[in-house]
Description:
Layout: H1 26-48, E1 53-54, E2 59-60, E3 75-77, E4 80-82, H2 106-114, H3 117-126, H4 157-177, E5 188-189, H5 190-207, H6 210-217, H7 227-240, H8 243-265, E6 273-275
Antiparallel strand pairs: 1-2, 3-4, 5-6
Helix pairs in contact: 1-3, 2-4, 4-5, 5-8, 6-7
The structure holds FE2/S2 (inorganic) cluster (FES).
Amino acid sequence: MSTVEAPARSRAQIKERTLRKDNWRLYPITTFVIFTAWVVYATVRAFWGSAFYVPEFHYLTPFYSPCLNEICNDVTVNGHTGDAAEFGTFLPESTRGWIPFAALSLPFLLLFRLTCYYYRKAYYRSFWASPSACAVREPHGKYTGERRFPLIAQNLHRYFWLAAVLISLVNTYDAILAFHGKDGGFGIGLGTLILVANVVLLWLYTLSCHSCRHIVGGRLKNFSKHPLRYRMWGWVSKINERHGTYALITLGSLVVADLYVALVASETISDLRIFN
Ligand code: FES
């Protein structure tokens, strides 16, 4: 009786870095450029310390929310004065320029995105070449995965998600305040629509998170005894399919929202009013 030999477990010895013939470099290079540009813009704006609030229409950029510096009070733009601080101001004016006004939210938002499954894939490929693409050999000698320090910290993502939910609530509150008219009552401007659109997209990104899907529908033996959680799990699963898209779109919507508020707050442009 003949014996069948088990296949050798070593990797195929292929000299080429990859046998792929398509333009596999496009994704990591594009991602690298977009992420680098975004981080530079966000860092500059977070430390800028001005053009963050439009008192007349209550527009506050998401990069400064919640606004915690003393400067967030009595902001004057275009002859109108108002307070951007809705949650207190425990940062003294002297910290301007080296501590972001949104010192409580920005670190958590950064950690939330940094540990996001989508962003991990994106920056592992584009910044660490680990690997650059499927079926492309990586330059690193060994791979220890996310089970050891420092990458084991990626598992904290579910806790950063909770912080992101709280911050999204604050952003929602900011967007509601932006329905403010010239005479002090109800009003809508282009800034209102931009801030609302940004908040909707932020919620889609936050609620489509893989951790959220697990928090909502995980650890259950069967769904039939938990119809509400099953329904929520189904909804989260649906938007979860586009999580990567929301991750990218919200990078753009945050910049658009911040830039628009900065342009109006610096009196470079006037807000386009739709109602009052
Ligand atoms: Fe992307 Fe949680 S997996 S935010």
